[in-house]
Amino acid sequence: MNDLKRAEYLDDQDPLKLFSTYFHHNPNEIYLDGNSLGKLPLQVKTDIRQAIDSQWGQNLIRSWNDHWLDLPKRLENKLAQLLGADPDELKIGESTSVNLYKLIHALLSSKITPNNLVTDSLNFPTDVYVMEGLTKQFECNPLIIVNYSSDLKADLTLLKKKIEKQPGIICLSLVAYKSAWLYPMRSLNEFAEENNSIIVWDLSHAAGVVDIDLHHSKTKIALGCTYKFLNGGPGAPAFIYIQKDLIAKLHSPIQGWFGHQSPFDFSLPYIPAEGISRFDAGTPQVLSLVAMEAGIDLSLKAGITNIRKKSKDQTAYMIDLIDSKLTTLGFEIETPLSPEERGSHVTLKHQECWRVCKALIQGKNSGVKVIPDFRPPNYLRLGIAPIYTSFVDILRAIERVKEIMVTQEYFNIDNERPKVT
Fold first, then answer.
1. Which of 2, 6, 126, 180 could link 343 by a cystine bridge, Cβ 3.0 to 4.6 Å?
2. Average pLDDT over residues 392-415
3. Which residues lie across from 222 on neighbouring strands?
4. How many Å apart are CA 399 and CA 393, to the nearest integer?
């Protein structure tokens, strides 16, 4: 069976193959950047049009009572099903960075753990920036960054030694943004608890493709974005999770009116809401909330177990293709080979990755365009969103990379970089 026949056979056997029809697709384009921004669910067009024309245009202020006040709670109920949480442990709103600030500030103020802040060299930079800023506001030791010898995976022995020595608040990304390495969530949570520490998990590169169970994994605090594999749209509101037993012990540093016990009484002084609603701040981002519901619905309909299985199968398939077609051309795989240790993107390392990335995006004449992304210094990330990515897509993308290298097409590409890569 040749490569194309095999890919077509795998697509034919795929139980999720019809879900691709629920998304907008550009002709002659293979999209492998769902780990940065998910595709547009077609239902969003209808939902946004309804929200603008009818709810905002016709109903105006009355839509708060008729439609909008209950919207965040409805989405929280759905997202809780995907993440293995109770709805009253989840709050949707704000951005990932703002939510991380609120959560770590609340933990530092609570004195539940020692005031040490720890992260590692695999974490997403915004998490590091937020933590650095908080060390200036509190009487903390300088931020501890556990540095590993490579970007591929964490040295868990080194990480654990640092937690033992300086327990406190540990911030980690469940799926590393560069390599897609997947941390052992439950065992690290248990280790942290034994050492008077709490791990704050950033789920941004995991939510929607990893079968997360926040209860089973004994997670106490987590957050993440919804615009990647959950397909919530650019700038879609982020979420926070706080284990039920902890909520009453934590207070948001932003005492916004929606976090008040009775926001529409407009009373003083500020009295925080009893539950996780105390982490609300300002007015909900209604149009963004409307846009994100369809993506969550599709993930629920497909089933996170099915999505995760297909993710493992497709990343394994891509790695096999890379081994057979690209390693002889100088590419190295910077993603764990074990499917249990990786998320849903595959990272390639090569000194020409940036120019290869640009060549993929530009296409050649009327040929197929491939949309991946690039991360410094020399990583090409190929993101697989199982809910709409096909095996044929993966095959054509890898063959296109090979063509660029064999023909030396990348020599005709300049090294100039736009702001977003």
1. 180
2. 94
3. 201, 241
4. 10
Give CA separation, 98 vs 13, 29, 237, in Å: 42, 34, 11
Task: Catalogue the active-site residues.
Answer: 124, 202, 227-228, 381
User: pLDDT band for position 416 (50/70/90)?
Assistant: confident
Cis upstream peptide for 142 (omega within 30°): no
Convert 322-348 to b/e letters by CB count within 10 Å (16 or more is b): beebbeeeebebbbbeeeebbbbbbbb
Secondary structure of residue 334 in the 3-state scheme: coil
Q: Which residues contact 111 (CB under 8 A, 6 or more apart)?
A: none
Whether omega for the bond prior to residue 15 falls within 30 degrees of 0, making it cis, is no
- At 23 the pLDDT is 98
pTM of the model: 0.96
Contact 370, 377 (CB under 8 A): no
Secondary structure (DSSP) of 245-294: HHHTT---S---GGGBSSGGG--SS--B-SSGGGG--SS--HHHHHHHHH
Spatial CB neighbours of 399, under 8 Å, sequence gap ≥ 6 = 3, 325
45-301 CATH pick, 3.40.640.10, 3.40.228.10, 3.40.50.170, 3.90.1150.10: 3.40.640.10
CATH code of the domain occupying 3-31+303-412: 3.90.1150.10
What tens digit of pLDDT does each residue of 191-242 get?
999 999 999 999 999 999 999 999 999 999 999 999 999 999 999 999 999 9
DSSP 181: B
Q: How far apart are the first and last CA of the chain?
A: 37
- DSSP secondary structure code for residue 409 in this structure: G
Average pLDDT of the chain is: 96
List, as one string, the DSSP characters of 6-50.
HHHHHHHT-TTGGGGGGB---TTEEE--TTTS---BHHHHHHHHH
Burial (CB < 10 A; 0-12, 13-18, 19+), residue 242, is buried
Alpha helices in 274-409 (DSSP H): 286-302, 304-325, 353-362, 391-406
Pairing of strands 369-371, 29-31: parallel
Token code pair at residue 201 = 């998990």
The answer, yes or no, to whether residue 421 has pLDDT greater than 80, is no
**Domain ranges within the chain, ordered by starting residue:** 3-31+303-412, 45-301
CA atoms within 13 A on the CB side of 37: 9
Cα separation, 318 vs 335, whole angstroms: 11
Q: At what angle do helices 391-406 and 3-12 cross, to 10 degrees?
A: 160
